[in-house]
C-alpha cells in the first residue's frame, strides 16, 4: 500500500526516507537496540541507509511491514513504530504485530506509548486488524511496560519462540483486541467460557 502519515499531540509518524540515515544510524548505536531487536550489530551507516532507502519502503510496497519513523514536531527522530508480521492482516485472521524502538535520549517521555496509540488506532480503524500481538524476548521489561500501558493483555511465555543472534529465547507475548479499546464490530468473538 501507499505509505501514510499519522500525527498525535506531540509527534509526527511518517515513512522513513533519505534524510533519516544519520539519525537512525546514531540511534542504533545504543546497545539496548541490538540487544532486543534483530538489527545488524555493529550497526553501520550503510545499514541505516539500507533500512531507510530500501527495507522500510519495500515493507509498505510489498505489504510485509508498515513501519513509521516517529518524530517530534521539531523534526527530531524519536524512534520507529510499526506493524510487523502482517502476513495474516488481510486473511480471515486479520492479525498483525506491533514492533518498536525508541532512541535512548527520547525514552521516558511517554512518546513510545503515544506513537503506539496512533498506530493501533489506525490498525483497528483503518486496516480492520482484529488481533494485535506484542512479542518480546523474555526479560524486556521496558517493552512489556509499554505494551501494558497500551492495554495489551499478557498471554504468557512461549518457550524458544525467538531466535536471536544464534540462540533461542523465550518470548513474552500479549494481545490487544479492538474490544479492549471499546471498539465494536468485526468478526464475532466467542471467548472461552
Ligand atoms: C521499550 C522502549 C521502546 C520503551 O520506550 P520509552 O520511551 O521509555 O517508553 P515510554 O516513555 O512511552 O514509557 C512507557 C512506560 O514504560 C515504562 N518503562 C520504560 N522503560 C522501563 C524499564 N526499563 N523498566 C520498567 N518500565 C519501563 C515507563 O515508566 C512508562 O510507564 P508509565 O506510563 O507507567 O510511567 C525503549 O526502552 C527501547 O527502545 N528499548 C530498546 C528496543 C526494544 O526493546 N524494543 C522493543 C522490542 S519488543
UniProtKB/TrEMBL annotation:
Pfam families: Acetyltransf_3 (PF13302). It comes from the Bacteria. Keywords: Transferase. PROSITE patterns: GNAT. InterPro entries: Acyl_CoA_acyltransferase (IPR016181), GNAT_dom (IPR000182), Ribosomal_N-acetyltransferase (IPR051908). GO terms for cellular component: cytoplasm. Residues 11-183 form the N-acetyltransferase domain. Gene3D superfamilies: 3.40.630.30. One of its GO terms (molecular function) is protein-N-terminal-alanine acetyltransferase activity. PANTHER family: ACETYLTRANSFERASE, RIBOSOMAL-PROTEIN-SERINE ACETYLTRANSFERASE. This is N-acetyltransferase. It comes from Streptomyces armeniacus.
Amino acid at each position: 500500500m501507499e505509505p501514510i502519515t499519522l500525527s498525535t499531540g506531540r509527534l509526527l509518524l511518517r515513512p522513513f526516507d533519505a534524510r533519516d540515515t544519520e539519525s537512525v544510524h546514531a540511534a542504533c548505536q545504543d546497545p539496548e537496540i541490538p540487544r532486543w531487536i534483530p538489527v545488524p550489530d555493529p550497526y553501520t551507516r550503510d545499514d541505516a541507509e539500507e533500512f531507510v532507502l530500501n527495507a522500510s519502503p519495500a515493507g509498505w510496497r510489498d505489504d510485509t511491514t508498515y513501519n513509521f519513523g516517529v518524530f517530534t514536531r521539531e523534526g527530531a527522530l524519536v524512534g520507529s513504530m510499526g506493524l510487523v508480521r502482517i502476513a495474516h492482516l488481510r486473511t480471515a485472521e486479520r492479525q498483525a504485530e506491533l514492533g518498536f524502538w525508541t532512541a535512548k535520549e527520547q525514552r521516558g517521555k511517554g512518546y513510545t506509548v503515544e506513537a503506539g496509540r496512533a498506530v493501533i488506532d489506525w490498525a483497528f480503524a483503518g486496516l480492520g486488524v482484529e488481533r494485535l500481538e506484542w512479542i518480546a524476548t523474555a526479560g524486556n521489561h521496558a517493552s512489556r511496560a509499554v505494551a501494558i500501558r497500551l492495554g495489551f493483555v499478557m498471554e504468557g511465555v512461549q518457550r524458544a519462540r525467538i531466535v536471536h543472534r544464534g540462540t533461542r529465547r523465550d518470548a513474552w507475548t500479549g494481545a490487544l483486541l479492538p474490544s479492549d479499546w471499546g471498539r465494536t464490530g468485526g468478526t464475532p468473538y466467542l471467548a472461552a467460557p
